[in-house]
Amino acid sequence: PTVINNFFDQMEEIIALYKIKPWNFYNMDEKPFIIGFGGRYIICHKRGLLRATQTTAGGHESVTVLEAGSASGVFLPPLILLSGAKGTIGRFRHIADNDTLLPGARVNFTPNGYITRENFSFYIEEHFHPLSLKMMRDPDEHRLIVLDGHDSHLTFRTMQFCYDHKIHVMCFPSHSTHLLQPMDVGVFSPLANFYKQQVLQWSRTSMRQKMRVCDFFPLLHQAREKACTEKNLCSAFAATGLVPLDRERVLRKLPI
User: Which residue ranges does the record assign to the DDE-1 domain (predicted)?
Assistant: First the structure.
């Protein structure tokens, strides 16, 4: 309880001191995905019959999606991190140029599909900052990001950029994101479930095809349309006691 209380004490102080508004209060986190999946799954039909079905197999390539959403229920377009060299970005130019498929999303690359310090600096400077700037209602407003303390997040370059642009950064206490992080509490679980549903649906019409990276984008888009909603995000901020501020919602969940 002491760690949680200290976190909320600091949160309340920052919000009051810098007059943080809900539309400037963001949670940011990464969600890993696998391109396709393989194996045998039991599918129950309407008549109650069970049969084993071989699903589509992908290359099991890891993809990381960076999501940020505000306490007012607005999701920013995601940054999608793919494994590979930067020189291949032209293959996915249709994402940046497409107004209906993941509008506003950007693609970047990482050696193994997981986020690096360079990826996160790019995200903050080139993606989050300009997009969240448009959400501000006054140029003098401050922004607040709450996120986990992953090593890639806390570099001097990123912290200096945030300081220079009135972006405050708070890290959740260790081992508390299942209680305090809105993305974990109310967004990523339905997002993962809807993505699995989209992959299953895709596999039923493409049983002999190996899922490719380019197939991932429309499936992610469809899953985000269902999971990344204003209702889910606002409910998640409320459930974690962040907006409205209510630490008791979290403290009640702690073991006595």
Answer: 64-237
